[in-house]
Amino acid sequence: MRKLIIANWKLNPLTLASAQQLAASVGSSKHEVVICPPSAFLAQIKVPILGAQDCFWKLKGPFTGETSPAQLKDLGVRYCIIGHSERRALGETDDMVAAKLQALLEQGITPVLCVGFGTTVGEDKLDVTEALRPQLDSALRDTDPKKVVVAYEPVWAIGTGKPATSEHAEQIALFIKTKYGIEKVLYGGSVNGVNAQEFLSQNHIDGLLVGSNSLIPDEFNKIITS
Ligand code: PEP
């Protein structure tokens, strides 16, 4: 079954030449594969589907250093990650994430809403859903949930080499779909070439958000051919 796999390169690599080389190393896949390079390289990366790692909630004006969803649209960006735990850790609030989501929808860019920041409690389902609820309630208020992709990323699994179990990710994906009417839920957190298949074979996990291993061509190609 065709799933959605999103590569989040974060603040890597350091040169345009390396970024172009990395983009060229992405093989073919039966899945929909989206590459999110750093914003500085967005205009010069050639991939079938381009994504962004973040955006601002206003289209233009006196906002030094920000990136407009309209500029992303002009560059051909089709998906944009928002609410990543690394941005929430820098002070991004649920209200900011909600505003970004609306701005993206107005530009016809699909928001990839990351939830999971604060879920340091482990895999107990009740604790996790309680932590996710305010993030989902705030971002999805007055929104057509069918236009939004949600990525469940438990913060304790991101970049740690300790993924959630596929059973846990599946339970949370089901919760997000049933309670919020979301049609596509991704899992992210220490996905690699070995465990990708296990996540992708779950009924309610519609794809993956991949950080560290999207920078390693062999590993990423294993993931997208899972
Ligand atoms: C991420 O940062 O979104 C992520 C999933 O990272 P990693 O794959 O490195 O855990």
Could you characterize the architecture of this molecule?
The chain is an alpha/beta fold and 226 residues long. The protein has a single domain, classed as Alpha-Beta Barrel (TIM Barrel), CATH 3.20.20. Helix content is 34%, strand content 17%. It is built from eight helices and eight strands. It has helices at residues 16-24, 69-74, 85-88, 94-106, 125-140, 166-180, 196-200, 217-224, and strands at residues 4-8, 32-36, 50-52, 77-82, 110-115, 149-152, 184-188, 207-210. An eight-stranded parallel beta sheet has the order 2-1-8-7-6-5-4-3. β7, α7 and β8 (207-210) form a beta-alpha-beta unit. The radius of gyration is 16 Å and the shape is globular. The mean pLDDT is 96. The chain binds phosphoenolpyruvate. Phosphoenolpyruvate binds at residues 8, 153, 158-159, 188-191, 209-213.
Q: How many discrete domains?
A: 1
Low-confidence stretches: none
Based on CA inertia axes, which overall geometry fits? globular
Strand order of the largest sheet: 2-1-8-7-6-5-4-3
For this structure, what is the CATH class?
A: Alpha Beta
Helix content: 25-40%
Bound molecules: phosphoenolpyruvate
Between the first and last Cα atoms, what is the distance in angstroms? 10 Å
Say how many strands there are.
8
Find the structural class using helix and strand composition: alpha/beta
CATH homology superfamily name? Aldolase class I
